[in-house]
Specification:
heterodimer; A: alpha+beta; 7-stranded antiparallel beta sheet; elongated; B: mainly alpha
Chain lengths: ~450, ~280
Amino acid sequence: MPLFFQDTPLADLDKPPLLSRLKQTLLARKTVLLLLILLMSSLFLGSTLPQRFNTPDLTLARWQQANPVLGRFAAVLGLDHIYTTPWFAVLLALFLSSLLLSTIEQSRLALRRTWGPPPPAQHLPLASSRPFEKVLAAAQQAGFRLVSRVDHTCRLVRNAAGYWGAALFHLGLLLVLAGVLLLVLTQKRGLVHLAEGEVFSPGMAWTSQEKGVLADFFFLPEAVRLESVRPEFWETDDLKQQRATVTFLEPGTESTTCELEINRTVFHRNIRVDQSASFGHAFLVILVDEAGRELPLRMDLEHPSRRDQASYNSFEFESVPYLVKAKYYADASHRSIDSGTPQLVLRLDLAGESAGEISLLPGQQGSLGPYTARLIGTARWTGLVFSDLQGMGLVFFGFFVIIGGGVLIYCLPPREIVLQAAGTGCRLAWKAGRFAAFYESELQGILEDEQPGPG
Amino acid sequence: MNNPALVETILHWTAVVLYVLASLANTTGLIFARPRAERAGYRLALAGLLVHSAALLHRWVEAGHGPYMVRYEVLSSNAWMALVLFLLFARLFPRVRPTSIIVFPGVFLLLAIGIFTNPEIRKLPPTLSSIWLVLHVSFYKIALATLLVALAFSLFFVLKNRFSWAWLQRLPELGSLDAYSYRFAGFGFTFWAIGMLAGSIWAYQSWGRFWAWDPVENWSLFTWSLFGLYLHLRRFFGWQGEKAAALFLFCFTMAVLSMFFVPLLSSSVHSEYFQ
């Protein structure tokens, strides 16, 4: 015996045929299915094919050489930068449109369910010998609210707010997706590694840059100088905090100095500045060749993760025909994770053969292959992140709307009863928006002497 | 005892033993219709939960941060959350109780696997000092717990549909099993979404970017979309029964891969903690 009654479909508003067809297409279940599959395929490809933003140029070039056909295909379709391609933005836009229409439909449905009239009498499958008024009173006592009464038919709803859960959840997703789309189109984000005392001027090349499909090169409004870098460590050598002081050099006006640390954001002239977790030492080495020419080299190395462990990097310089391999300890005695005497070990490699090796402390010099190497100075460096992002507000707001939707869906499952007087007894239908099986006993409590009737 | 690691190990192993006993008693009770054994299973699970809570609290005090830094902490706290939520569900909705046959062993397996990973305490990096991180991991744990219940209902459906064992007949009817699985999957989908968004807000706060497209983020979004596909197929294409259960099993497998295996990839920012 079914307890439930069905909602009748919503009547569509009169619309021009083209708009109506577009709406139907975007709302079609198959369209939503297709969009989901396309989104998942994009994510799958983005995870399996190398992407420009997180793959070094050399690695990407090697991959393209190893996979010439796939490489060409990827280049044509932008599969090596999927998330910044126009087609991905179009996919997001279509998803957004579908979600928008779906949210509107669900809101209309929720509106009707919250305050709408009872359905036609033939939808009432249960009969009870209890008098209409008694059942009505029992339902109201059980928490059902009378929302409409047409002649002798009443509609009672419990947890009507729960009808808005799905609409709110979809609205939240819509807001988040709208924010993401705005970000994907307009974001400007640049990371720059600077050593203490170094100045980064507008128009200089970023260490790495991400920009939206519609965004131009990210120009800072003014030059910025890194004044100091101050890492702080736990006793276990793990990083506790990373701080830096920067100065914005505004021509003609007083400069502005800002203190940065991880998780403490600074805004300057609408540009967001974040402290990156990357830092280390920049080593300034002079190589003197056999002809007496001085070749200045700068090598930025990441800070080692432990006092007794080194960090490594390799460098290629136009002026030196060797590959320069560098090893860096935070402290020459290996007893401290942070000291004023970092140790640099250099090795020259040519075709895999070592041509010389030397260990240097600040101010020291010695022989390195055919050169004399002198470590003339060190300075701390760190990464600074500048960004100009529009749309995060929508993402944040959408987040709370989604939570609201989730709470309504799962904490306030709506139930409703349609009740109609029939002779000395009544006819009725009961329905739960969600988890019907959990609440079926609720109806039994209201209808103590209920017997299923015909139809 | 002055050795904090030893105290924690003893507490954790005691909890594992209690959970194993709870699983045995509960399974016996459900399969052989022995209500006393089932009740004993719940009492043992509660006792295990108390000891497990003490172990996590001890860890929290020793480490100076919540249990979300290394795999050892993550798996243990996932197990704890799964059991707490299950007991809450079982209290509110008694029809959920049979899923304990999957949830209890799932809990002790999560905890036991966690114990075999590196328990070294790691200090909290500055990027992880954020309330959004706590929300991010908490919502994922809630999602996992609800998906575990949905998994149990899906498995029950498949078993009951294919076999006529006596204990399966005491479970709710097939239609209800299918509906429960659907609903708990929806619950998991919702909390997965919230967890993912909390993570993106945390990333924005810490790195000035809301989404880095790293493997963990990508696979999490992929898994969430897959659950969206599952719900959509059920809601609008009338998928139900074994076909829906099979798709859910695939979704659940993807969820486990996304949560526990993808973070092991070194190219992810999440590998900083899940090592």
